[in-house]
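Handout, page 2. Input:
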Amino acid sequence: MSLHHEVAFEREICEHLGANGWIYEEGSADAYDRQLALYPPDLIAWVQEAQPEAWEVLQNNHGSKAEQTLLERVRRQLDQVGTLDLLRHGVEVLGLPKAIKLAEFKPAFGLNPQILQRYNANRLRVMRQVRYSTRNQNCLDLVLFVNGIPVATCELKTDNTQSIADAVWQYKTDRDPRPAGLAPEPLLSFPSGALVHFAVSNREVQMTTRLEGPRTQFLPFNQGSDPGGPNCGAGNPVMEGHRTAYLWEEVLERHSWLEILGRYCIAERDKKKRIRRLVFPRYHQLAVTRLLLKAMLEEGPGLRYLIQHSAGSGKTASIGWSAHLLADLHDEADRKVFDTVLVVSDRSVIDTQLQETLENFERRKGVVASITSEKGKERAVGRCPLRRQEDVWPPRSAWPPGSP
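Output:
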């Protein structure tokens, strides 16, 4: 392997992020806490800047131990509820009337000055060569943090001497979060560690949300060989420079990344409410939902669009994200664009999958109603203001013959 090429690749990504809203500082990895799997300077700075009243109470209650008290509490809560839940709902600390926020995400509407101030205070950091292990000196090429909490890792390979397969192999064989007979690695553990792990080369990207040694399953995170074209295949378009630059230039763009963490990532739970799977959008799912929302805001409702997905590419999840994002969509005047979103399927198997997906993606109870009977139909229609014929778009007169 050419270490020189890989180091240059790392620096190029980090310097781009550092120039575009992220924090990149050489040597910052020295302050990373392996046991807690946190970057304490950013977590403390975030609370002090975004929630000074909460920090004052912590200091009054714990004095010189305020920092360590907060850090240890965050670690315990990460282990109990997982990274995604803690980022979105904050951490409860004894003596405080409400949870301390660990990140601020943009709401669908009603962005007031206080929320905007906290949103702009989010500290996104990229760190190189992070010695993460509690038992050896293993390094991860890149780790991405939000307010001191690790949310993603990356293993990079340059195509001069290696390929994407080498990065995947490294994750599977040398990044085991739970080695037999040894303590778990906090940074790599599911669901309390990083939310997603990227294997990256100059040409391709793959991702996983759960490391399980040799059983780890990676999915492509590519644009396609000809995005939007009739003959689009696997991989990424041939171009000058890195074919995977969209990862750090587009996906990891500050506002994009916060939106993904705040609105796209989904924790699917089992019957006992334990997290069984984290759903992270693949590139084409991000692209299609964002294009759809952009079209709605620019062109308004009432038009038709066709979204094509190949088999196994996650169309059910794309429908789920589209439905929820459209239901939350507001225009520049904070007016709701759609009162109700209906999802219709003509296959019972797909319908069952859609129902489960829509309910899993629900972040606020009462948003989703399943129409599985006349009673369910009445319940859903009762919520929907589109009752009269003249309220339906397109009007019934324009519907195809035989439409119900």
